[in-house]
Amino acid sequence: MRLNNIVLTGALAASAVFGVISQSNAQTFNPELHGAVLFEVQDDWAFDSDDKTTEVNTLFTTIEPYLIFTLTDGLAIEASLVLEPVQGTDPGDDTFFDNEGLYAEELKLSYTDDDFSLFAGKFNPSFGTAWDLAPGIWGVDFAEDYEVAERIGFGGSFTLGSEQTGDHTITGNTFFADTTFLSESAVTRRAELDKSDGGISNTEDLSSYSVTLDSENVAGVNGLNTHLGYRNQSDGDADVGLNRESGYAAGANYGFPVGNGVDAEVLAEWVGIHDVDGTADDVDYITTSLVLTILESWNFAASYTRRDMNVAGGADIDDHLHQFSTGYEFENGVTVDVGYRGTEEAGVDTAILGGLVAYTYEF
User: Fold this and answer.
1) Tens-place pLDDT, residues 96-124
2) Strands of 240-297, DSSP E
3) What Å distances lie between residue 183 and 26, 189, 216, CA to CA?
4) Using one digit for the tens of pLDDT, what is the confidence trace for 81-95?
5) How would you classify the pairing of strands 224-233 and 245-259?
6) Region 2-362: CATH code
7) Is the CB of residue 63 less than 8 Å from the CB of residue 37?
8) Which residues contact 110 (CB under 8 A, 6 or more apart)?
9) Helix (H) / strand (E) containing 18
10) pTM value?
11) Strands 186-187 vs 166-177: parallel, antiparallel or unpaired
12) 3-class SS of residue 135
């Protein structure tokens, strides 16, 4: 049954993509490979914590190739690979490039025209933006909780707008959690997800979905962008007594020149998740940030995220994360950042000093 459901989903999704293509003008087959590879090396030194077992040094790498194999002007196969730590470590142990595993985060067929797109396969459904856009070394850390990733299904987007109103893109996605061999990892093994494992959207049918509206240059204001999102994820078929999860997102970011070679960007986002992971708990996230770019090379970033969890039948949990970092981008594209992160999670305060070296190679 599992294989039949996945194959049927893939067939329907591919039919939808190719159905639109067949109605458009014929395009010349012209295969070409291009993309980008992000290289990062990060060191986190937790030098002070209420929990002494977390006072460790963690050195790790993240490598993210994004590959696009174009077949025609509009049709492409896209793949996003990730090499990063995929297993936890023992409390109190320093780690140096430990437990690094390689897996496929996305593998999809896409078709893009001037004002619409369709995609099918394994992908990351749209919902929220702070998990991607919050600046600094650790600005995205709490917000990554609500990123929706590694789902199988299909979706599409449509863009409309003008110089006076801005560009507005509505995106719809329907999906389920990846339970194929693509949920495993190489080098260090990450176990394949099975339907029997349960978990949110682990249904092998298209009963989970998200809808988002992303707007650029809103009302003709250059640099003002907004995001609205809704998601609804089914409890897993193997779950007992759990609920559907629903979530809402609303955010904005605005980039503007300050003067004398200084540019600024501010961001604010609220996300509320009801029945998070199918439980009776609710959680709210508020992320705010500011980044200053000086002479296109120096950056100074500050961010703050609050995570408030309303625990059913228990005490509420209020977590906080603040981070400050500064960095420099060299002419060859290499960036070096250093900073400080402070968190309070479940009543435990932890302070971290760290650094990040990054480079993106495009081809």
Assistant:
1) 999 999 999 999 999 999 899 999 999 99
2) 245-259, 262-274, 282-294
3) 35, 10, 34
4) 999 999 988 999 999
5) antiparallel
6) 2.40.160.10
7) yes
8) 17, 75, 76, 77, 78, 117, 118, 119, 120
9) helix 2-23
10) 0.91
11) unpaired
12) coil
